[in-house]
Specification:
mainly alpha, elongated, 0% strand
């Protein structure tokens, strides 16, 4: 058996090789660096590439839009829509979803699940939970549900 030990590879620049490994495995206690300006990548056409965009899932969007409805029109208890325009949580959810579709149901289920996490398992509906809590407590649940939808990417 003949074993060839010579190759046609280009010799490795040892300094470049060491630098590459240093970048991959930096010193365990690097000095804090000053924040760098965001890099702008350029696509072959010469135009700057668009920054990466995180898509918002339909449940997160519905919950966010519903909270915006509450912020715009006000929050209400004991009425789907108050004569002055304020809405309860389910009224805001219905306004944001536009229809009682799958996204509306998923957003409502996530909101009710978060209400149960924060205020106990006894709540069977969004209106019963909404009507029994303060505006600050209700807002806290909405914000937590939006964060969960964000982390779940739904």
């Amino acid at each position: 058996m003949n074993t060839r030990t010579e190759t046609d590879f280009t010799p490795v620049d040892q300094d470049l090789y060491a630098k590459a490994f240093q970048l991959l495995d930096p010193d365990p206690t690097p000095e804090p660096a000053a924040p760098a300006a965001p890099a702008v990548s350029v696509v072959p056409s010469g135009l700057p590439a668009a920054p990466p965009v995180r898509l918002i899932g339909p449940v997160e969007k519905t919950l966010t839009d519903a909270l915006a409805v509450l912020d715009t029109h006000g929050w209400a208890r004991f009425a789907l829509v108050h004569p002055e325009g304020a809405r309860c949580s389910i009224g805001a959810l219905r306004a944001a979803a536009g229809a009682r579709n799958a996204v509306y149901c998923d957003a409502g289920n996530l909101l009710l699940d978060e209400a149960r996490r924060q205020h106990g398992k006894k709540w069977e509906t969004i209106p019963s939970w909404n009507d029994s809590h303060t505006g600050a407590q209700v807002r806290s649940v909405w914000e937590a549900a939006i964060r969960r939808a964000h982390h779940m990417n739904i």
